[in-house]
Specification:
10 helices, Rossmann fold, elongated, alpha/beta
């Protein structure tokens, strides 16, 4: 009872003496003073009915009063503070952490394949933010193209092989990359390194990675300076994979370093590209049975396409008819 009377008397004195504007601060001091007085006169033992002042569950966050007479919320814990820092503070300096593209912005020419609508919106934002970057004419893949953007939203760094992917693969300098690359460039306001975003495969095939500054002897898939066999191609298929025309197929063959066969060429292996379900295969074989080539293979177009995409000559017997 004496403690309660003393507590009440001390509170009345403080409320009469201190202006109301600072009342929150004085009430805090009053509580602290009361607690100290009770500690002096109360045994420190703890029971189920008493509060242990040393237990963390009983700690009350300190309330602060600012000069505007508004009460601030309790200070965040160290974990909360670190989360807020990650959310609101900028990343480390780009100059020390960001790897930049090997291409300057004014040398980048972009083509696309299988992009979704929202990804196209991102492309337009990217072009506004980096006006030096160009789109390829009609979005075609050609020798000026440097980047082919792919949708990999279903599975990261994976895609379905399209005609443009094959055309880009035949040109070793072209980056075949996820459209997430441009999203990251926009976020960092920098043309960043493409390598972490390169498409690695489809469901069956590992894609080749782009090569910059390669030596000439490694430029071509067929008939480079280290080749032991000379390849030639003949086209007997009407259309490759339903989308690649004869002229496009000829271009792919030439990009690999091989040539269309004619009687003047001296070759070791002739690859004759045929349709998958070729009904006139015997007639095609009769056409080539008298030519002076030691080894002739009749294969489906996938032999050429898979070799290009992987940049590795495939086992020709697996594709033979």
């Amino acid at each position: 009872m004496n403690h309660q009377k003393n507590h009440q008397k001390l509170q009345e004195q403080v409320e009469h003496q201190v202006p109301r504007k600072s009342q929150a601060l004085c009430r805090r001091h009053l509580l602290e003073a009361s607690a100290q007085e009770l500690e002096k006169n109360t045994p420190s033992t703890t029971t189920n009915d008493t509060i242990n002042p040393n237990h963390e569950d009983n700690i009350v966050p300190e309330i602060d009063v600012n000069h505007n007479n508004t009460v601030t919320s309790p200070q965040p814990t160290s974990i909360e503070h670190s989360i807020k820092k990650r959310k609101y503070e900028p990343q480390t300096s780009p100059s020390t952490t960001i790897n930049r593209s090997v291409f300057p912005a004014n040398k980048i020419v972009i083509s696309t394949t299988t992009l979704l609508d929202h990804q196209w919106t991102t492309v337009l934002t990217f072009l506004r933010q980096f006006p030096q970057v160009q789109l390829a004419t009609n979005l075609n893949v050609n020798n000026f193209t440097t980047h082919l953007l792919i949708d990999d939203s279903e599975k990261l760094l994976h895609c379905t092989i399209t005609k443009k992917i094959v055309q880009a693969s035949a040109r070793r300098h072209i980056f075949i990359i996820s459209s997430r690359w441009i999203t990251e460039c926009i976020h960092l306001n920098e043309i960043i390194d493409e390598h972490p975003f390169e498409i690695t495969s489809d469901s069956h095939t590992t894609l080749r990675l782009s090569v910059q500054n390669f030596q000439n002897n490694h430029k071509y898939l067929f008939n480079n300076s280290s080749s032991t066999l000379i390849y030639g191609f003949a086209i007997e298929c009407r259309q490759c994979q339903g989308s690649i025309s004869r002229n496009e197929l000829i271009e792919l063959i030439e990009l690999t370093g091989a040539k269309l066969y004619d009687n003047e060429n001296s070759i070791d292996i002739l690859i004759v590209l045929c349709d998958t379900n070729e009904k006139n295969l015997n007639k095609i074989k009769e056409k080539y049975c008298h030519i002076n080539v030691p080894n002739i293979k009749y294969v489906i177009c996938d032999f050429l396409l898979k070799s290009i995409v992987k940049f590795e000559i495939q086992d020709v017997d697996k594709y033979s008819l």
